[in-house]
C-alpha cells in the first residue's frame, strides 16, 4: 500500500489530495500548521477508508518545521512513495509594498521548503522509486512579482529533476493550476469577485487534483489542468511578455 506525504493538507488542494489518495487506499502523512484541522481530516479519512493517517504539525517557513518533515521523509524504515509539495500562500500587495519578512517567509514556504523536502524524499526514493508533485501555478509561466518567480522556479526545477531521476524510478511533476476554488484568495483578504476573473476561468479542486495525480502517474514533468488553461499557457509562449504581464495584473493565481 503506498504512503503519501502532503504539505498544506489542512485546507484547499492539499485536503483534496488527502481525500482522493485515501479513496485509493494510500496511507497518509498530513502536514500544515493548523493541528485541529489536520486531526479532524485524519479522523475522517481513517474512519471512511480504513487508512493509516499521521499528522505532522509544522510551519514550513521555519527551518525547524521543514527539518521535522524532512526527517520523516528520510526515514528509510517507513518510506514515503509520494511527496506532494503543496503548502503555499499569496501576498496581498506588490513586492515593494509587502513587508520584506513576509516576502522571505513566502520564498521559504514555496521554494526553500519544497527544495529541502524533495532532497529528503530522494534519499529513500532513488532506487526504490517514487513520485513527487510540486504544486506550482500557471502564474509560473508569466511575470508577476515574487509569486510567479517562485512558481517558475518549481516548474524549471521539476522539468530538470523529472529527467534526471527517471533513471532512479522517480518522477517529478509540476502541477500548474489556474484560479481554483480554495481558501487561497480569501486568506489574502480577497473575495472571488475581487479578482475580476470570469466565472469560466475558475476550476474546482477535485478536477485539479485528479489531473495532477493522473499526469504524475504518466511521468509528466508539467501538468496544466483543463483545456482552457492549456490554451492560455500555449499563448504565453508566443505573446510578448509585456502583454502577459499586463493581463497577469488582473488576478492572483
Ligand atoms: N487556489 C488557487 O487559485 C491556486 C492556483 C494555483 C496554484 N495554487 C497553489 O496551490 C497550493 C495550495 O493552495 P490552496 O489554493 O489550496 O490554498 P489554501 O486553501 O489557502 O491552502 C493552503 C495550505 O497551505 C498551508 N500553509 C500555508 N502556509 C504554511 C506554512 N508556513 N507551513 C505549513 N503549511 C502552510 C495551509 O495550512 P495552515 O494554514 O494550516 O498552515 C493550507 O493547508 C499553493 O501552493 C498555491 O500557491 C493555488
TrEMBL record:
UniProt-listed InterPro entries: NAD(P)-bd_dom_sf (IPR036291), SDR_fam (IPR002347)
Q: Please give the SUPFAM superfamilies that the UniProt record associates with this protein.
A: NAD(P)-binding Rossmann-fold domains
Q: Which GO terms describe its cellular component?
A: membrane
Keywords of the record: Oxidoreductase
List, in alphabetical order, the Gene Ontology terms for molecular function in this entry.
Answer: oxidoreductase activity
* EC number assigned by the record: 1.3.1.-
What PANTHER family does UniProt report for this protein, alphabetically? DEHYDROGENASE/REDUCTASE SDR FAMILY MEMBER 7B, SHORT-CHAIN DEHYDROGENASE-RELATED
Q: Which family does it belong to?
A: Belongs to the short-chain dehydrogenases/reductases (SDR) family.
What name does the UniProt record give this protein? Putative ketoacyl reductase
Give the classification, highest ranks.
Bacteria, Bacillati, Actinomycetota, Actinomycetes, Micrococcales
Amino acid at each position: 500500500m503506498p504512503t503519501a506525504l502532503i504539505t498544506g493538507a489542512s485546507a484547499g488542494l492539499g485536503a483534496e489530495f488527502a481525500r482522493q489518495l485515501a479513496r485509493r487506499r494510500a496511507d497518509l502523512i498530513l502536514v500544515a500548521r493548523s493541528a485541529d484541522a489536520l486531526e479532524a481530516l485524519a479522523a475522517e479519512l481513517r474512519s471512511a477508508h480504513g487508512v493509516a493517517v499521521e499528522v505532522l504539525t509544522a510551519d514550513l517557513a521555519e527551518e525547524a518545521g521543514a527539518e521535522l518533515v524532512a526527517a520523516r521523509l528520510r526515514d528509510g524504515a517507513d518510506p514515503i512513495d509520494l511527496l506532494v509539495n503543496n503548502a503555499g500562500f499569496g501576498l496581498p500587495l506588490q513586492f515593494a509594498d509587502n513587508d520584506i519578512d513576509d516576502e522571505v517567509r513566502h520564498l521559504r514556504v514555496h521554494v526553500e521548503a519544497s527544495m529541502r523536502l524533495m532532497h529528503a524524499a530522494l534519499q529513500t526514493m532513488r532506487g526504490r522509486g517514487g513520485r513527487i508533485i510540486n504544486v506550482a501555478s500557471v502564474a509560473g509561466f508569466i511575470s508577476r512579482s515574487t509569486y510567479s518567480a517562485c512558481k517558475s522556479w518549481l516548474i524549471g526545477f521539476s522539468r530538470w529533476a523529472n529527467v534526471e531521476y527517471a533513471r532512479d524510478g522517480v518522477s517529478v511533476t509540476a502541477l500548474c493550476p489556474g484560479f481554483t476554488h480554495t481558501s487561497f484568495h480569501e486568506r489574502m483578504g480577497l473575495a472571488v469577485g475581487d479578482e475580476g476573473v470570469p466565472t469560466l476561468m475558475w476550476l474546482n479542486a477535485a478536477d485539479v487534483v485528479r489531473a495532477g495525480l493522473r499526469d504524475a502517474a504518466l511521468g509528466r514533468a508539467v501538468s496544466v489542468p483543463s483545456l482552457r488553461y492549456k490554451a492560455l499557457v500555449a499563448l504565453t509562449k508566443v505573446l510578448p511578455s509585456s502583454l502577459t504581464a499586463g493581463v497577469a495584473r488582473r488576478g492572483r493565481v
